[in-house]
């Protein structure tokens, strides 16, 4: 049939979409805990090798703007598959890096190639589901990402002593290839692009219109800060547990085991709750939880308490970012959903990149002071959110 039920079609490709999203976040998050070990392997400072995180995140964030525009012009399917293929090839090549500089460059190129998969998946949800129905599918996609985060942050650093860091990349590529093969086999639904005379000027104009409305501007600003805050904390957790508790790779993996698990187990529930009760209270709880947990890390606490705080920081992300993504799907509508989601991922991943850089620079002031600074700014954003996000109490059903 030429025009099958879009919701039924999405259900047939949801598993490989979730698999691809999970693998992208797996390889993104397995890197940061390895920073102390990679610094030793390549004989460079932790700050130097730490550039592998912002190199990937910033490239991912910038290029996704153009993926969103191109998907509105050519269709989600084509862009999603090309981006996933680029991720597969570049992830495999990364295992061949012979120096810190090569590794940084390959991470940058991987960010450029991989950044079309997740936003196109999210945009497909926005195309197909009404605003009041998006919480559950968005929650499931974010659960897959959180599962990738949890597995990557823990399994990567724990397996590295046995497999070596190169094998972590080599093993990821064929799994992503399997997801691509399933997608190509099942994507019989041909989504037509939204043809409306696309040009660079129109693309920039579309971004301007998304930011011109107060709801759009404040949403993207909160997404940007969310990226700065959570990446800043997460990127340097390996260094945190080495400096404060002198943990080895396996112990670090166990300490951050809880990172990503809340979203993996409760992502769908969080989405359904947002659909029924509104986003506002959930977002506030998420922002406040992350602030308190981060401040706790700056205290002299047992390692088990620190591990619990890490899990609560992850929960703070799970209670906020999927809900911000839900707002974004409403901003672009069905014709500009790719651009709206592209701008969302741009804000998030440029925040990720800048957050890791900023936290690394602030480490000159001391680890505990840096944690307090990040927690303090998070408190400010929580207070601001309490005033600016009141309109998110009820979801629009238009």
Automatic annotation (TrEMBL):
Residue ranges constituting the Major facilitator superfamily (MFS) profile domain according to the UniProt record: 13-393
Recorded coiled-coil stretches: none
Claim: Cell membrane is one of the keywords in the record: yes
Subcellular location(s) per record: Cell membrane
Ranges that cross the membrane: 12-31, 51-70, 79-98, 104-126, 138-159, 165-185, 219-240, 252-270, 282-299, 340-359, 371-389
UniProt keyword list: Cell membrane, Membrane, Transmembrane, Transmembrane helix
Gene Ontology molecular-function annotations: transmembrane transporter activity
Protein name in UniProt: MFS transporter
Organism listed in the record: Christiangramia fulva
